[in-house]
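Q: How would the structure tokens look for this protein?
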Amino acid sequence: MERSRDRRDAVRRLSRDGGYGMVSLYNDHDRYAEAPESILVEATHNAIRDLARRKLAESGGDWTGLVQGAVGASLTRSEVEGVERRLLDSGYRFAWSSTLSLRDRPEIYASADGALDDATFCFRHPAAVVAPADEAGREQKGVGDNVVQFAANVMGTALYVRTSDKVLQLMREGVGKDTIAIIDDSGGTLTAPILSQFVAVICAGGTVRSHLGILTREYGIPCLMNAKLSDIRSGDRVELETSALARPVETYQTGEELPARIWKLP
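A: Here is the predicted structure in token form.
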């Protein structure tokens, strides 16, 4: 607990106004702004604002000049990359949701033991809603946001599809009958060549308006986005509550939850 508090404090200390705190930015007075939901977002926003204040002060320009990239006021790529370096130097490591990112830059992400091994991997989301077996023997193993409400639930065999190599394998060998794909938030682009062959899709990120949500809706494929799963592995028989109400996009702003359940079948 103490280590977690120290890390939060270290990340917060990344933002320093360097004496430019009197320079006013447009979003200092944005009446629609909301407080950041995470310490990472707070630290990043503050660091970028500090950069903008310094650039404005040094250029003698105004907000319009900064936004439109006027000479002497625009932020450079190296300056923005410096914000990331300061975050990482503080000891912070990003939470990963796509194995593609994890493969490309493993040094910037939190520990991911077994994450790239599809044979043994399973999501264990700390907020997954689980429940003991019901009278039918179904064990609830998580929830997700239903993209489209169907007349009935869908059942099938879970299969993690999380790498381009796995997609190429399925393109060569074919997708098994009644396969329910479990994928990361990179799924729309990653699985596009074989998306129509799945009986349903579970995605660990995004919203009902994400690229994958739009594609599955157009294909008529049941899909749960923003899924929080625990202990479902490839080969498990699962049932998705696709008969649940579809989640309206405005509920992401209001915070209203409309979870569709995910069960592991006996």
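The first helix runs from residue 2 to 12.

The longest strand covers residues 139-146.

Upvote if useful.
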